[in-house]
Design goal:
Elements: E1 11-17, E2 21-23, H1 27-34, E3 49-54, E4 58-63, E5 67-73, E6 81-86, E7 94-102, E8 107-118, H2 119-146
Antiparallel strand pairs: 1-8, 2-8, 3-4, 4-5, 5-6, 6-7, 7-8
Length: about 150
Amino acid sequence: MERKSPNLETKLIMQLTSEKVTVPAKQTSVQSFLKDCRNMVHLLPQDQISDFKATETECSFKVQGGITISLVQEESEETDKLFMRSGEKSPFPFQLIIHTLDQGSSTEGYIEFQGDVNVFIKMMVEKPLSALFNIMSGKLRDYFSQN
C-alpha cells in the first residue's frame, strides 16, 4: 500500500489576529504615528531583530534566523485601518492590517495578518508570528503610555 504525502506546495491563506489593546491616545495620534514606517522600530522586539531600515512609507528588518521582512504601506482612504503589504525581500506574500478603533480619548487597536503560504511555512511561522503581533500591539500601547 502506497502512502501519499501531503502536497506541501499547496498554498493557503494563513490568518492571524493579535490581542486587542487599549492605547491611551486619540485615534488621530495613533494613526499619525503608524503612518510613518520609521516608527515601526518602536513596536518591534529589539532583541529579536537587526538591520532595521526605514523611510516614511516602507521598512525592512532581519528577524532571528536571518530572514528579512520588508513592509510597504498601501494607500487607503480608511481612517480606522492602515494597510501594509510584503515588500520584495519578504519570504512570502502577505498583508498586515493595523486596526485602530476610536474610543474617544483612547484607541482600541489590533493587528490582522493574511499570508499566502504553503503548509510547511505555516507550521514554521504561525506561532512566532502570533507572538510577534501580540508584542507589537503591546508595545504600541506602552509607547503611548510612556509618551
